[in-house]
Amino acid sequence: MNVLLTCAGRRNYLVEYFRTALQGQGQVYAADASADAPALQVADRAFIVPPINHSHYFDRVFELCQQHQVRLLISLNDLELMPLARQRDRFLKIGTTPVISAPDVINTCFDKWATLEFLKRSNLAFPKTYLTLAETRKALSQGEIDFPLVVKPRWGTASIGIEFPEDDEELDLAYRLVKKKLKRTILADASATDEERSVLIQEKLSGQEYGLDIINDLKGRYVTTFVKRKISMRAGETNQAVTVENDRLQKLGEMMGRELSHVGNLDCDAFLTPEECYVLEMNPRFGGGYPFSHIAGANLPAMLLAWANGNHPVACWHKVKTNIKAAKYDQLLVLKEDSDRERE
């Protein structure tokens, strides 16, 4: 029962989680375009592949799955999700199950304007959001919103291009800067699909931020929600958090999981205020907050393996202990020689 993690990057912890879940009944492979990706150093077998925008990228991933009898394929990069979703049947034919949601689900999550439309249809709260400077200034003049604001890419990942202007001059500068910089980032192609409306402006909420792991099975059926209160962030990713039990957020997770019918984990950011629960972001993949659920007792890798084998997950894998506070930390890792890996 071999597992392949693509765009594995720094997710060494996922390699270890899947290796433990396999209990010696398979291996964990990792693929990345960088030979120095930390996860490649600890995988049972590592593969250097082309960048995800290369014309042969998915052919290479397909070959790896076929040659090495990969049963589960886990993508860890937002930009890889849509093309993989469109090729899901291709992988299923060789016995590989991509843990990937349907293309419409991927689009709903990646396009933040589509995310807001989904939340509106589902009667869920979200920050006031605008697509142009003119709309934003009108809202400011009418007292609908106030500074500080959030300026961010409509198609975003990894907190790229987020600014927090505190007055009108900064708003104008931030908006133009984000639009200009987007053309030099990995989000350039996505942003070019609607260049005039490629940047969003939102009200900046005040309240406590939470991270949700909303878990569905491989058929998109809701299973459970793990909730963490965020304590600190680092480079756009949760750095410290504590697991909590919160009925409002768990009900929110259930509603979203049933409405969206995603596959596997939906990494969701939410803001809780005394009046309302706002949804900020949805990412249909393992997110940087999942380790805080895992260390508190959750075991999504084992659940995915069980579902792929047609088995029922053990009940304890669905649960986390509350009040488990954890923090990420840095380690050093000796990098292997390129000769120790397969290269395209």
Structure at a glance:
With 344 residues, the protein is α/β, with parallel strands linked by helices. It has helices spanning 12-22, 38-42, 57-67, 78-86, 88-92, 103-110, 112-121, 133-141, 168-182, 188-191, 247-260, 290-294, 300-308, and strands spanning 2-6, 28-32, 45-48, 70-75, 97-98, 129-130, 149-153, 199-203, 208-216, 222-234, 237-244, 264-272, 277-283, 325-327, 342-343.
Helix and strand arrangement:
Layout: E1 2-6, H1 12-22, E2 28-32, H2 38-42, E3 45-48, H3 57-67, E4 70-75, H4 78-86, H5 88-92, E5 97-98, H6 103-110, H7 112-121, E6 129-130, H8 133-141, E7 149-153, H9 168-182, H10 188-191, E8 199-203, E9 208-216, E10 222-234, E11 237-244, H11 247-260, E12 264-272, E13 277-283, H12 290-294, H13 300-308, E14 325-327, E15 342-343
Parallel strand pairs: 1-2, 1-4, 2-3, 3-15, 4-5
Antiparallel strand pairs: 6-8, 7-8, 9-10, 9-12, 10-11, 11-14, 12-13
Helix pairs in contact: 4-6, 6-7
Features:
344 residues; Rossmann fold; 6-stranded antiparallel beta sheet; 6-stranded parallel beta sheet; D-amino Acid Aminotransferase, Chain A, domain 1; alpha/beta; globular; 3 domains; 33% helix; 13 helices; Dna Ligase, domain 1
Describe the structure.
The chain is α/β, with parallel strands linked by helices and 344 residues long. It folds into three domains: 113 residues, Rossmann fold (3-Layer(aba) Sandwich); 76 residues, ATP-grasp fold, A domain (Dna Ligase, domain 1), CATH 3.30.1490; 120 residues, ATP-grasp fold, B domain (D-amino Acid Aminotransferase, Chain A, domain 1, 2-Layer Sandwich), CATH 3.30.470. The protein is 33% helix and 25% strand. It has 13 helices and 15 strands. A six-stranded parallel β-sheet has the order 5-4-1-2-3-15, sandwiched between helices. A six-stranded antiparallel β-sheet has the order 13-12-9-10-11-14. Strands 6-8-7 form a three-stranded antiparallel β-sheet, sandwiched between helices. Helix 4 runs antiparallel to helix 6 and helix 6 crosses helix 7. The radius of gyration is 20 Å and the shape is globular. The mean pLDDT is 95.
